[in-house]
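tool_call: predict_structure(chain=1)
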Amino acid sequence: MFILSEDSQRTQGRDAQSSNIMAGKAVAESVRTTLGPRGMDKMLVDSSGEVVITNDGATILNEMDIEHPAAQMIVEVAETQEEEVGDGTTTAAVIAGNLLAEAEDLIEQDVHATTIVEGYHQAAAIALDAISEQVQDAEVDDNVLEQVAESSMTGKGTGGLTAETLAETVVEAVGHVETDDGVEREKVAVHTQIGASSNATELVPGIVLDEEPAHDEMPSAVDDASIAILDVELEVRTGDVDAEYAIDSIDQLNAAIDAEESELRGYAEAIVDSGVDVVFTTDDVDDRVSSALANEGVLVFENLGNSDAREVASATGAKRVGALEDLEEDDFGQADRISTENFGDDDLAFVEGGAAAEAVTVFVRGGTEHVVDELERAIGDALDVVATALDSGEVVPGAGATEIAIADKIRAEAAGIEGRKQLAVNAFADALDVVPRTLAANTGQDPIDALVDLRAAHDAEGRAGLITDGETVTIDDPFEFGVVDPADVKREAVESATEAATMIVRIDDVIAAE
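tool_result:
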């Protein structure tokens, strides 16, 4: 009797577990060497020859053409980490891979998958308690936030800028969008532009758009601008019916032309009479209307996308208007300055100092596309972790110190757990050792010796991490050197890695249709 299609492939029992675990481990191993301040980069080349150079774990895993379903779960770990807290993607993926490796050893010792899963979840709960115990007592002020940003960006491609310099820009940007209800992270944008050194990267107190004036004679800058956003086509109106009109004389032709001119002149006069200085419209603007507005000193941007129009409205407080006759002063937005600048082949519009809402843009510069792309990823991650730290008010030591503390607490509590579940709890602690071991290996240290020294320093001092300063690597208190991470990054890494690993371990039957 055939229950499945003859073309279906089925893998069961140990073979299924082994295949899934091997795939998960392989994915985690692919990003392991990117971890830490001395992590290496990966060059990813797609089928069309497009190249991405990065050491960002989420980007690497997203760009890889992964087909194995278990391996996809590890990719989802990185994606979840990126969406929730913005950083720690490599850490989460590496921990998940090592949890699978430890589970594989337990399965070979005839420990049941359910026992492993129960032990892992119990260990994860202990780990979360250990993370809370590692939270720094001091207030999370701008100095600490700069340390969080710098720790996030150290080792990533930041061009000619130091992580310290960029950290100040990142913290200033997040500070602009902090409210009583928390950080409005979506109001911080990152805009990249090729054509200058990364040292030209700056914070713009507003938004940056890929737009140019509708007419060359329009002003290049308007100070203290009144802004209107129109969803109106400023061209000659045409009917919906396909019709032809017969013109029998020059007088009729002139009358038709005059009617068009009058209609277009009416659009320009209505805008000028409203008192608006700058117009953003999502539709077309006739050249004659643009010319008339240019003569009156009105700056116009046409054919904006919906997302850009929403950004302008949010940043300036302007209301979108669907009919020109409905335009009133109450609909206007305000900005301290709107200017246009040319960068090679590109024209950009800068909307600065919005009146109704705080919006800021990190304007990233770089000499090549690869440089600005990696800078954008690094700054994006730093913005996320600073926002996370500011919202929660909790930071923990980096440099592997938190993982050492977690593993130590888990091993201490494992002694009180009965049965084979104790093996799984201890295996979880061993899996967490992958973070300090990998950090050591990536800095050229012997991972076993470094792990032994870290444990000894932790037992003696209560906190110990691998501190990298130039070519020197020492074991010390990360808080003393400003190497800190948001507590939520560590929590999310433990939780998402545990969920993915336990889900994969429980699978003992894989049915694949051809």
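agent: The longest strand covers residues 333-343. Proceeding to next step.
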